[in-house]
Amino acid sequence: MGMENYQLESHPLCHPESVLQGEHYRITILTPALIRLEYAEDGVFEDRATQSVLNRDFPPCSFRVDDTPEELSVYTDALELHYNRKPFAPNGLCIKVSGGIASEGTWHYGEEPRDLRGTARTLDEANGPIPLGHGLISRNGFSVVDDSRSMALTDDGWVAPRKQGIADLYFFGYGHRYLDCLNDFYYLCGKTPLLPRYALGNWWSRYHRYTETEYKELIERFEAEHVPFSVAVVDMDWHLVDDVDPKYGSGWTGYTWNRKFFPDPKAFMAWLHEHGMKITLNVHPADGVRAYEDLYPRVAKAMGMNPEDGLPVQFDATNPEFMEIYFKELHHPLEEEGVDFWWLDWQQGTATKIPGLDPLWMLNHYHFLDSRWKGTRPMTFSRYAGVGSHRYPVGFSGDTVITWDSLQFQPYFTSTASNVGYGWWSHDIGGHMMGVRDDELMARWVQLGVFSPINRLHSSENPFNGKEPWKYDKITESVMKEYLSLRHALVPYLYTMNRRASRENIPLILPMYYLEPEQAETYEVPNEYYFGSELIVSPITEPQDRIARAGKAQAWLPKGLWADFFTGMIYHGDRLLELWRGVEQLPVLMKAGAIVPMKDMSTFDNSIENPQAMEVRIFPAEDGAFTLWEDAGDTPTDADENWAATELAWNQETSSFHISPAQGNVSVLPKTRSWKLAFIGITESPCQVTIDGAEAAFACSYQKETAAQILTITDVPVGKEIRVTYPNGLSLAAETLNARCYKLLEKAQIEYNLKSRVMSVIEKQGASAVATLAAMHLNPAVFGELCEILQA
What we know:
Layout: E1 19-21, E2 25-31, E3 34-39, E4 64-67, E5 72-75, E6 79-83, E7 93-97, E8 106-108, E9 143-146, E10 152-153, E11 159-160, E12 167-172, H1 178-189, E13 202-204, H2 212-224, E14 231-234, H3 265-274, E15 278-283, H4 296-302, H5 320-337, E16 341-344, H6 359-370, E17 395-396, H7 404-416, E18 425-429, H8 439-450, E19 454-457, H9 474-489, H10 491-503, E20 509-511, E21 529-531, E22 535-537, E23 551-557, E24 561-564, E25 570-572, E26 575-581, E27 588-591, E28 595-599, E29 613-618, E30 624-630, E31 644-651, E32 656-659, E33 663-664, E34 672-680, E35 688-691, E36 694-695, E37 699-703, E38 708-717, E39 722-725, H11 737-747, H12 752-765, H13 770-775, H14 780-790
Parallel strand pairs: 13-14, 13-19, 14-15, 15-16, 17-18, 18-19, 29-34
Antiparallel strand pairs: 1-2, 2-3, 3-12, 4-5, 5-6, 6-7, 7-8, 9-12, 10-11, 20-21, 21-22, 22-27, 23-26, 24-25, 24-27, 28-29, 30-31, 31-32, 31-33, 32-39, 34-38, 35-36, 35-39, 37-38
Helix pairs in contact: 4-5, 8-9, 11-12, 11-14
C-alpha cells in the first residue's frame, strides 16, 4: 500500500543559473521581483516541493551581481539585495524595492511586513472583525512568505519533516504590480483548480436533524416556490449521534447512516440527483472509527486489527497506511452510494504526532486529491490551513454570530483573502448562531451571498433559526427569492470567471486597489470589490435609516461611466460617493461596455447546466467584449478540447452587438438557444436583427423605468451568427432626475408638505438643487439619497 496516487504536479527544481550559493546560504532569483532566501548551517538546502511551494522552475531572468569581500549585492529591474553572507540578521540582509511607497520600500530581515493582510483559518464564533494573517499585497511594495517550517512533499505522495533551525523565505517585491505578484504566486504555489459548475449555484445547509421525508418535502417546497438550489448539505445528524453507546464516547464522529432518519440513503441521494442537486455530508473525523460503525470490520481488518476485539481505529493523519484505508474503506463506499463531496469539519486544533504538521492541511490535501477517484472534478469543503490552501477549494469559514457586525466584516474578509490567492470562501450566509432575529439583516446577508464566491445558507439547530425564505416577512421573503434566483441566473457569468480564476490567475473577487493601486481612495472602501471582469459590488452592511427606508454603502467609482445593474441609473466615475438602496436592492454597477451573460430564469428549473434560454445585460457606453466559456461542468481534468467559446461583443462605432457562432466543443451546448438581450441605460431606438446575414424576427420592448431596451430572439442554432444593429446609432438615456427623486420621496417617512416642497425645488433647479436642499435641513439619509441622484 502507498500514497503514490496522491500527488500534485510540481516542478520544484529551479534553473541553476538563477542561483547564488555560498557555504551556508542560497539565494535564488526566481523572477526580477521574487527571491528565495535560504540559510542552513550545514549548507544543505531543500529542493523538494513543500506544503506551500510547488514550482520553482521560473524562466531565468537577468540580474547583476556585485561580489565584494564585505557584501554580496544583487540588482534586478525590480529590487536590490544586500547581504553580508553571515547568518540572516536585520543588519546583514536587506532588500530595497521600487514601485512602492518610496520612504518605506526597504525590508530588513526579521521585520514584520506591513501588508494589506490575507485571511484566517476560521470565523468560528466571530462577532465582527478578527485578526487576519499576512498577505502578498502591500502599499510598501513588498511582502514575505516564510516557508521554513512547512513539510516537504515526497516522491511517494507523502510528507516529510524538514530540518529545524533553517531559514527558507520568499520575498515578493512587486511594488504596486499587484496582479503580477498574484500571478507569480499562483505559479510558485500552484493554480486555483477549476470548480465544478454545480458549486456556483445556491447551497442549502442547516444544522438540523432532518429525516429523509422532511428533506424531500423541503426541496419540493423550494421547487414549488421557484427557489433554486444546486447543492444539498446534510450536517452531522446524517450519521448515528445519540444512539451511540456511551462506552464508545460521543457520536460527534460517525460514518454510519442513521436509518431512523434515512432508511434508504442510496435512494435518498439518487432522488436529490434527479432533482438537480449534489450532496455533501458533514464529517468530524477526529475520533476515528469505532466498533459500532457499519464499516468498522473492513477498516479494522485492513489495518491488521481483529474486528472482534472492538478496539477503535484511531484517526492518525501522520500514518500513510491509515490515510489510505481511511479513504478506500471508509469514504469510497459512501461515495459509491451517492455522496458527491465531503464537508470536513475539523475543529480539533493543529497538533499531530509530527511537530508542525497540521491535521487540517492533511485532510484538505488528501481529501481533495482523493476526490478525483470517481472521474469527476475534485473538490472538498473545509477550513483554511495556510499558504497554498487555495489549491483545495472550497473554503468553509465557520460558525459566525448573527449580527450586523458579522455581516459588516464579511465583504472585507472575502475580498482580502485574494491577497493570499484564496478566492473561494463559503460563509454561513445569514449567520450561524445566537444573535437577534432581524429580517432586514437576513435580506442584506443573502444579497451579499449572491455576490460572493459561494452562496451557502446555513444556521444552527435552534428551531427559530431556519433560513427558509417563507420564515421571514413578505419583503424579506421576496428579496431572498429574487436574489437566490439571480444567483442561478448568474452561473454562466460565474463559470466563465471560474475558468479565468484557474487559467488566468485572477480571483472572482478583487479589492478595489488591485486595478488602481496609486489611487488612495481605493484603499478607503474595504467592503467594495470587483465581482469578475464586468461588475463592481458595494454591499450594504448596516441597518437602513428608518426615515429614508434605505441603507448606504461607501463606494469608489473608477474613471468612466457606470450603470446600475438593476435600475439602469448611470454614474460618472473618478470619485467617492455614497450609494443608497432600499432593502430590495444592492449596489451592483456595470462598467462601460460591460457584457454579463446569464441564464434566463423566466421559466423556473433547478438546473445549472449550460442553459438553452440566455439573458445578456449590456451597458453599451463604449466598446465591450466577453467570451462565454462552457464545458460539461464536471470533467475530471481541465483540457482545452473540453470547452466551447461564444464571443459576445458591442461595437460603439457601428452601434452593433454581435454573438459569434459557438466554437470548440459545441457538443456540450444545447443545439439552439433563445437570447434575451437587455441594453441598459439607453434611449429607445430602432434596431435590426440578422442571423447569418439574413433578417430575422425578434420581439422588442422598452422599460422606461430602467432605461432598458430588451430584444428576444428565439431558437437560434448555436453555430449561427447573430447581429443586432442600431442603424440610427444608439444614445445613452438622459437621467430622469424628477422620476427618480419622486420615487425616493414617495417612500420617505417625512411630512407630505415637505415632500412637495423638496420636489418643487428639484423640478425648478434640477441637478443644481443640492445647495437649496442642504439649506432645508432634511433628514441626512434622505438628503444623501437625493444627492446621489442629482450628482450621479
